[in-house]
Amino acid sequence: MAALDETLYPIAVLIDELKNEDMQLRLNSIRRLSTIARALGEERTRKELIPFLSENNDDDDEVLLALAEEMEAFIPYVGGVEHAHVLLMPLEALCSVEETSVRDKVVESLCRIGSQMREMDLVNWFIPMVKRLAAGEWFTARISACGLFHIIYSSAPEMLKMELRSIYNQLCQDHMPMVRRSAVSNLGKFAAKVEYAHLKDDVMSIFKGVTQDDQDSVRLLAVEGCAALGKLLEPQDCVERILPIIVNFSQDKSWRVRYMVANQLYELCEAVGPEPTRTDLVPAYVRLLRDNEAEVRIAAAGKVTKFCHILDAQLAIEHILPCVKELSSDSSQHVRSALASVIMGMAPVLGKDATIEQLLPIFLSLLKDEFPDVRLNIISKLDEVNQVIGIDLLSQSLLPAIVELAEDRHWRVRLAIIEYIPLLASQLGVRFFDDKLGALCMQWLQDKVYSIRDAAANNLKRLAEEFGPDWAMQHIIPQILEMSNNPHYLYRMTILHAISLLAPVMGSEIACSKLLPLVINASKDRVPNIKFNAAKVMQSLIPILDQSVVEKTIRPCLVELGEDPDVDVRYFANQAILSIDRVMMSS
Amino acid sequence: MSLHSSSRAPIDWRFSQVFGERAPGEELQDADIISAIEFDKRGDHLAVGDRSGRVVIFKRSYASNELYSQSQLEQLDSTPTLHPEYRYMTEFQSHEPEFDYLRSLEIEEKINSVRWCAAPNGALFILSTNDKTIKLWKVKERKLKKVNALCPDPHVSSENALLAERSFVSETEETSITNGYQAESGEKVANQSLSSQGYSLEIANIGYDARSSCQRTYAHAHDFNIHSISTNSDGETFISADDLRINLWNLQISNQCFNIVDIKPANMEDLTEVITSAEFHPVHCNMLAYSSSRGFIYLVDMRQSALCDHNARILQDDDSHGFKSFFTEIIASISDIKFAADGLHILSRDYLSLKLWDLRNESKPIKVYKIHEHLRAKLPELYNNDAIFDKFDCCVSGDGSHFATGSYSNLLRVFSDGSGSKEVFTIEASKNPNRKSLLTAAPRARRTSLSNLARGFYRQVHENSFSGSNDTSCDLSSKLLHLAWHPTANMIACAAGNSLFMYYA
Questions:
Q1: What is the pTM of this model?
Q2: Of A189, A410, A523, B439, which residue is least crowded by CB atoms under 10 Å?
Q3: Which residue of B159, B234, B302 is in closest CB contact with A177?
Q4: Which domain range does residue B172 map to?
Q5: What is the pLDDT of residues B227-263, one digit of tens each?
Q6: Are residues B164 and B94 in the same domain?
Q7: What is the pLDDT of residues B11-32, one digit of tens each?
Q8: CA–CA separation, A331 vs B197, rounded Å?
Q9: What span, in angstroms and rounded, lies between the C-alpha atoms of A141 and A437?
Q10: Residues B184 and B47 in one domain
């Protein structure tokens, strides 16, 4: 007995902590439920632990979430699949929790458990539970029920299947919009399990009902249902049943519903096939591109490329391109920005001629847009642009845009363009870069905003990687040397930062001959911040440089800094000396 | 719904209950003044917010005989009617005073509005707001258990006992919160340690206790002071309105909201009006109404556009453009609007009148009820002491045929639709209301006027102007600003200072 108690003691502590006032302790204990269950054994887990957990549903959401997660993998601890149904009890109680994230997890766990349960057990335990939930007093229980039908439907006997379909129908007409939303968003999953005959009749009539719901929030979820159901139906039925609904939705009174259609339309095209797409969906899409509401146009503009890929060139040029032209001068900058981020993808569909003739002017006008976001979006897709229209044509119009962005008032815009510079460099090649952009890269090192200087230093490193050390030796190093004498200490600090980044790329020889003297020089600066940054840079140079150089040049310099009046300088100098020693020891 | 259904039979308003009544001679505490009242959808609960940031919840008690002694029942009336009665359920500190260091602004804790959300399970959900921050509160009621007997049980091994006494350990925590059952809680702690040694417990329910917790905080979205919040019929969104903007939130998402109305002009000198109140349509999730200081009611269809500032329908009283004085614009300002439950009518309150609008008729209200017309002559005086800027609430009965609002001297005014001005009731919200069922609010002797006024919120400077005009027939410092109508019963809850009065008919 005593021995038994001893082994059970940690378990008793864990159980005790399940009730502790401290949420963290309860959480820890829940996380170790499997340990408790193993110690208790299968039978006592079933008879004591699980009932206990079932009543423990009045806890913080975080604890309940953890509980739902643990239950998911609990089948082995209650004695395998034949006992899996005992796990339904605690989870059923959690189905009516108000926090959505907890309920979602509970439903997920229930689905996982349900998919492992034997058919007999599903009928005896799982289905009655779903029915209880679906008839639950609280709408949260009914919300959860909607997500469980697809697990049980296939296992149910014929009579029960009919009942389940009718219960689902009721859920789709629940008086709480929250339940209807859940029913609609789970309809696709449920429909996938329903026999085709019933799908065509029952499910489609349910669906038709929800598409006429007076709550916008229900209808807009039904738009997603269109795509899901469309894929399940045979093309002919799809055209007959789904297409009219889509066309209706694309003219819905609520802009939020139209927004959803604009987002989903290209998926629906696949479901209905090419001919109905041409006759019905292209006009619908064109309407959406010209919608009154900017939000809808944004969504539609963002899908222009995806939509064009489904169409052939003729249709795209005839119907879509005129709209794109209008959108490129849309009154909303967000619409133009959305268009700019995808427009280049249209080029392959249109072919070279149409691209140069029609798309290029649009592209150029977007590149001169007054809003930086629009220009940036074009530049970010530069590789695609380059493939289509070639570098010569591009460089003429590109350069002014880049230069303007590089000097934009908003530092975030400058930051964004800096991040594209390596991409530009690789696309445009060394020659073009040297001529036009090299100076900009140096100019950023002296920006007023730290983030820009920091990004500029990183940029130099990436350029050096791109074009190689020789190029960097010619184009970067001399200018860095020059700038190291800047009267402002913050700029000198940026140079130190750039050196520490460049040194590994340049290799030991250049680092030793060109960069090191600069650092040594910086260690004699009058500003302490420069001095300790010099010490840090030296520390980073140690692995790159030859050991003799380290001993001969760096160490004396650091020793000198180690006696600096400033405490920070001494600290970083000593850190650097320590790491020299460590390298020495290991070699 | 018929507007004329129950208005034929004269309604007899009776006093039902009072909470937080002041004892004679007790000073009115500024912190205790009620600033928001709202019934939940079924009328089972009533939430009351006050100036000190507290929200008090009252719960409908169905077994009224248990709560009231026989003598009290007799006092109420001869036949005990089945009107709702409420008991105190719980309260929580919703907001604390804060300081905005960026703008050097003090943020008051005063609750400007409370609204109920749909109850997803046994718990209650309440949105409360002060000037800047909206919070979602969950109030969960739980059974309190008490240990009756303690019997040693040799068959229970130690972990079993641990499992067995589970549900009640958390209860001790609650009791300490309410301070109600300290004796028991001490006992329980003792028993807990005993139980782990193999005792089983007999537990009896001794009542209910409610625990409140803040679920979400919706902050940093308003530059101006929030005056209204309203929940949508879709159950997932709500709006918050300040002087110039209305934001739309999802209840689940507290770090993001959408601005749907923005009337702030680029140059603040061009400002012509401010938003004074905003409410969602009770049925149609896409409809939103907001009122302005110019006396307009804007009806917005959120389906048309993401930004709702334009293409709103405007309800505006064309008749009121007759005679104009300096005060016309000020008293035209609408202080509150309420949709009737049918969603076809809107009730609005301006300084001197209550107007009932049919949404289909934009050019004039279908009914105008005068609240305190005798004040029209005193507008200059009311302007000088700022009383003209008082914001009175209004409310509509569940069947849409009765309307109520407040006035000075803690007067509650109830109007009925249909049979003309006869159907006006005036009740003074105090312990012994002498009901006056006519428009004539008889001039009452003023209670020790000076001390009474000094207690008010207005600057002492105005005292002279007050004492100089003794003929003012009402007490401007006691005003009945906030009230709410029970959704199904003929019952009004109204706030007079720090007291909550309930009337039924």
A1: 0.79
A2: A410
A3: B234
A4: 144-209
A5: 999 999 998 999 999 999 999 999 999 999 999 999 9
A6: no
A7: 678 888 888 877 777 777 788 8
A8: 77
A9: 62
A10: no
